[in-house]
Write a structure and sequence with these properties.
The complex is a heterodimer of chains A (about 220) and B (about 260).
Chain A (H helix, E strand, L loop, with lengths): L2 H4 L1 H33 L4 H15 L3 H15 L6 H27 L2 H9 L4 H31 L1 H4 L6 H10 L4 H32 L2
Helix pairs in contact in A: 2-3, 2-5, 2-7, 2-9, 3-5, 4-5, 5-7, 6-7, 7-10, 9-10
Chain B lengths: L18 E12 L2 E12 L3 E5 L6 H8 L7 E6 L2 E2 L5 H8 L1 E4 L11 H11 L5 H14 L15 H13 L5 E5 L7 H16 L3 E5 L3 H7 L2 E6 L2 E6 L1 H6 L4 H11 L2
Parallel strand pairs in B: 3-8, 3-9, 6-7, 7-8
Antiparallel strand pairs in B: 1-2, 1-4, 4-5, 9-10
The chains are: A mainly alpha (about 220), B alpha/beta (about 260).
Bound molecules: adenosine-5'-triphosphate and magnesium ion.
Main location (chain B): membrane
InterPro entries (chain B): AAA+_ATPase, ABC_ATPase_HisP-typ, ABC_transporter-like_ATP-bd, ABC_transporter-like_CS, MetN_ABC_transporter-like, P-loop_NTPase
Subcellular location (chain B): Cell membrane
Chain lengths: ~220, ~260
């Protein structure tokens, strides 16, 4: 009587749940993080203020609190009937975007100012300068911290289980409540998380190596 | 904009058909430091103006205000009759008409030499890729680095990089070119190859503002020398006048220093 085999469909659903919420929140975090980083270095003061407020607010709020707000407050006043999965992804994606933003911004700061000045004096707009000149050169320095941020995101996705999102950690709760021995359960859960996090660090290692040969 | 106009305006090579860049009563502070004080400077179309002066006198700042890389506190700057607009699309359009060459080259490190010269044409001028490439190659040949087109900037010598930077600016068909000490980061043996390109450009009738201490260039290419000290224009004269008989004590003092080393 193996826990994994007995409850394989639930395990599989949990694993898929973890991978999905990780993937969706990663997408949200990356897009928002880069955009907000752009805001934070923009010449337009209101955008800068917005960026600073965004980062300060989200980075300093406990993630559990953010989940509470998105699951119980947001549907009440804004989007009634939104699924737990979407709400959870939003909470996790928004939260992580503040870390992505800061990593991207520190990468931007490593690109010599002369690069942006040369772009602007050719007549490029702020967003062209950022997209075509600064961000591509910042990528190399941004990759290592980004890898850690996304691994943290994967592990943080466990919190979503407490807010009725189907994911791996929820499977563990289900089975320990049924009275199974928790040691093998934890073993399987950790292995599944490792599979996701190793994939992430593997992808980043490939990306880093690619960028090294590209120059 | 014209297409491939590599040898510019052979028909009106001489200076003076109207004012291209006009600075009037320009003031700028960096905190408590008054870097530009009541600057009045008019640059005619086709004119080559050399700006010279001691370190910290505000030469770079002056140069950078002309394409608004530095903002000014008061006064006005017009280019081809148009006042410099606020930061935004319109300013970007105006900057495309003002070429800038930096002391430290500032070539885009992640792009090849060819891409460096194509990028502005394609992204700013919305030129067709094929045409942009052709023009880029012609310009690279013209500044003598045609064979380096597929290399990255870091693989080139300083003199080659600076010539690529000049080609990159020229690719926009600028109305005026600004040079901020284009040769002072170069090893001595590379200075001439860059100066020769600039001299040719001057002969072709390009309007140029050049911050430099290269007196040979000033004598052979400049129509006028502007001497700055402590944020002011202290003296304006022809190169011959300025170098052989400067009027102000500041200029005499400065010239005696740069001539003695
Ligand atoms: N961004 C800045 N913030 C504060 N002060 C500055 C800034 N840029 C320049 N300055 C100061 O303004 C003064 C003029 O600088 P600028 O670079 O225009 O001089 P310069 O004539 O080009 O000198 P150099 O021959 O050394 O290049 C200097 O005292 C400099 O320290
Ligand atoms: Mg300077």
């Amino acid at each position: 009587m193996n826990v994994l085999l007995d409850y394989f469909p639930e395990f599989r659903d949990g694993f898929i749940g973890t991978v999905s919420i990780t993937a969706v929140s990663t997408a949200i975090a990356l897009v928002l993080g880069v955009v907000i980083a752009g805001f934070r270095v923009s010449p337009v003061p209101p955008l800068r203020w917005f960026g600073t407020a965004w980062v300060t607010l989200l980075r300093n709020t406990p993630l559990t609190l953010l989940f509470l707000v998105t699951t119980f407050v947001v549907p009440e006043i804004l989007f009634p009937g939104m699924s737990a999965f979407v709400l959870g992804s939003l909470a996790l994606g928004f939260y992580t975007s503040s870390f992505v933003c800061e990593a991207v911004r520190s990468g931007i700061n490593t690109v010599p100012l002369g690069q942006a000045e040369a772009a602007r004096s050719l007549g490029m707009t702020f967003s062209q300068t950022l997209r075509l000149i600064v961000l591509p050169q910042a990528t190399r320095t941004v990759l290592p911290p980004m890898s850690s941020i996304l691994i943290a995101l994967t592990k943080n996705s466990a919190i979503a289980g407490a807010f009725s999102v189907t994911e791996l950690f929820g499977w563990q709760k289900l089975l320990s409540e049924e009275g199974y021995d928790i040691v093998p359960i934890f073993l399987w859960v950790s292995l599944a998380y490792l599979a996701v996090t190793f994939t992430i660090s593997g992808i980043f290692r490939i990306l880093e190596r690619r960028l090294e040969v590209a120059r | 904009m014209s297409g491939v106009s590599v040898t510019k305006g052979a028909e009106d090579a001489g200076p003076a058909t109207g004012d291209l860049v006009v600075l009037s009563n320009v003031n700028k502070h960096f905190g408590a430091l008054h870097v530009l004080q009541d600057i009045d400077l008019t640059i005619a179309r086709g004119e080559v103006v050399v700006v010279i002066g001691p370190s910290g006198s505000g030469k770079s700042t002056l140069c950078r205000t002309i394409n608004r890389l530095e903002t000014i506190d008061s006064g006005s700057i017009t280019i081809d009759g148009k006042p410099l607009p606020q930061e935004g699309k319109e300013l970007a359009r105006l900057r495309a008409d003002v070429g800038m060459v930096f002391q430290s080259f500032n070539l885009f490190a992640h792009k090849t030499v060819l891409e460096n010269v194509m990028l502005g044409q394609v992204k700013v001028r919305k030129a067709d890729k094929k045409a942009a490439e052709q023009k880029a190659r012609t310009l690279l040949d013209r500044v003598g680095v045609g064979t380096q087109a597929d290399k990255y900037p870091a693989q080139l010598s300083g003199g080659q990089q600076q010539r690529v930077a000049i080609a990159r600016a020229l690719a926009m068909d600028p109305k005026v070119m600004l040079f901020d000490e284009p040769t002072s980061a170069l090893d001595p043996e590379m200075i001439n190859e860059v100066l020769e390109v600039m001299q040719q450009l001057a002969r072709d009738g390009m309007t140029m503002v050049v911050v430099t201490h290269e007196m040979g260039f000033a004598r052979s290419a400049a129509n006028r020398v502007v001497f700055m000290a402590d944020g002011r224009i202290v003296e304006e004269a022809t190169p011959d006048q300025f170098f052989s008989s400067p009027r102000s004590d500041r200029a005499k003092d400065f010239l005696s220093k740069i001539l003695h080393h």
